[in-house]
Amino acid sequence: MIALNNHASGRHFLQIPGPSPVPDRILRAISMPTIDHRGPEFGALGTQVITGLQRIFQTQHPVVIYPASGTGAWEAALVNIASPGDAVLMYETGHFASLWQKMAVRLGLAPEFLALPGIDSITGLPRSWRHGVQADMIEKRLKEDTLHTIKAVCVVHNETSTGVTSDIAAVRRAIDAAKHPALLMVDTISGLASADYRHDEWGVDVTISGSQKGLMLPPGISFNAVSPKALEASKTAKLPKAFWAWDEIIEMNRTGYWPYTPNTNLLYGLSEALDMLLEQGLATVFARHQRWAQGVRAAVQAWGLEIQCADESVYSPVLTGIVTPQGIDADALRKSIHGRFDLSLGAGLGKVKGRMFRIGHLGDCNDLTLLAAISGVEMGLKLANVPLAESGVVTAMEYFAATSRV
Ligand code: PLP
Hints:
By secondary structure, the protein is α/β, with parallel strands linked by helices. Helices cover 41% and strands 15% of the residues. The chain is built from 13 helices and 14 strands. The protein has a seven-stranded mixed sheet with strand order 2-10-9-8-5-3-4, with helices on both faces. A five-stranded mixed sheet has the order 1-13-14-12-11, with helices on both faces. Strands 6-7 form a two-stranded antiparallel ribbon. β3, α4 (95-106) and β4 (110-114) form a beta-alpha-beta unit. The longest helix is centred in the C-terminal third of the chain and has 22 residues, at 282-303. The relative contact order is 0.17. The structure holds pyridoxal-5'-phosphate. Pyridoxal-5'-phosphate (PLP) is lined by residues 18, 69-71, 96, 156, 160, 187, 189-190, 210, 219. The site of pyridoxal-5'-phosphate (PLP) has 12 residues, from α3.
């Protein structure tokens, strides 16, 4: 096997915003022997993971599991509800929203890409990449669409490239206020099971998510949660679909099976992850991520650096984006930190490449792993001669100590 375990000693610090560190309990579950996916035991596993996922998505309706990365689930969402040339209203929150928009073009749709105009005066970065979805812009555009040609509104809940979340309930209210029949499609690939998310209550029609973030699994499975309205739309949607088609999968899922070979060992891991999350309770899981995020942001503010998200009401609980001062190449900084301290940080992607880096605070972390990550960053910043106002490590230690519980 290729020598991947070339770290001198100790465990690698994987502080990117997904794939997130996988707990040993889940790794052990995944290592169980593969069983017959058409045999008698499998149906119970299939039924259990689908039922558990419904609790995580907070939905009574079907959740489809694909043996694919999140990109596959994006495509599944679009091909199931749209016909060639359909207009879809998308919103540029960052790199992942931009990739989804490009995919819509490749699929032969006509996406309209709304964005907050302008460049941010402090950082020189696009304003739209520092703020969440502006629901009033969506409402205005839908009101103009009096012929109701827009088939769907597509937004990213937790924009992993920037560390900005968006208020999905507000987007639903905007669609309702415009009295528009568009479907609401939401990517919460990096939000699910870390940030509060309510598929049914927020009136979402298709929610897209993936395994490798809040669910603490390796990459390889992804999801579509589907409302009755979206299921109805899929019956007349004309984009070609075969592997991604919801109808056959949902039909076979009724007994816990799939029309193709599912990803058995990742489903063992999913079963374990669901047990872990539901044993703790979602409210506890969300509060834990909020607290970690608060501690990491306290460190960044102590250093005197700029947080990529410019609106504190939509700070991500999953990751924090940190803008490097002008003249400091964020990629060179990450490389130096990785080489010296065995710590992986998220890169700036697309329009913010080289200008920022990201610390993930999700998955199998705790206060001390985060303090280690903050220490690695602080040492890297000092080695790069970035002037720091105060010690972020000390500030985060004080925050974690003051908010810790016995
Ligand atoms: N959407 C978001 C918000 C993501 O964070 C990612 C991946 O990080 C994707 C989509 C694409 O998912 P994948 O890389 O699993 O295909």
